[in-house]
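User: My instructor asked us to take a sequence, write out its structure as tokens, and then describe one feature of it. I'm not sure where to start. Here is the sequence I was given:
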Amino acid sequence: QVQLIESGGGLVQAGGSLRLSCAASGLTFSSYHMAWFRQAPGKDREFVAFINWIGGVTNYAASVKGRFTISRDNAKNTVYLQMNNLKPEDSAVYSCAGRRLGSQEYTLWGQGTQVTVSS
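Assistant: Let's start with the prediction itself. The structure tokens for your sequence are:
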């Protein structure tokens, strides 16, 4: 059974840091590009960060560039999101997602982890 399980969310003060993890199982992890998305209450889900299958290509939403870093460890089947200088507007449920090499669609999704940033 394919699973993506996020962890590392929580409550943090503005200016603080969190590191999210997404552990994958039941799949060939290196066959998937991975990304993080987030959704705040009453808002659409939005893209946060992307990393290609080998970790050589990354890109970020403008709102997080310079503050967040996506990385992956294919030996551990895990993708990470290091979030620094957090702002209250970063509060959301963060989910990891995977899309198979050659596909444009994210077909694997985790349940999400809550991040709350207090001012």
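For the description part of your assignment, you could build on this observation: DSSP finds no helices and eleven strands in the chain. Try explaining in your own words what that tells you about the chain.
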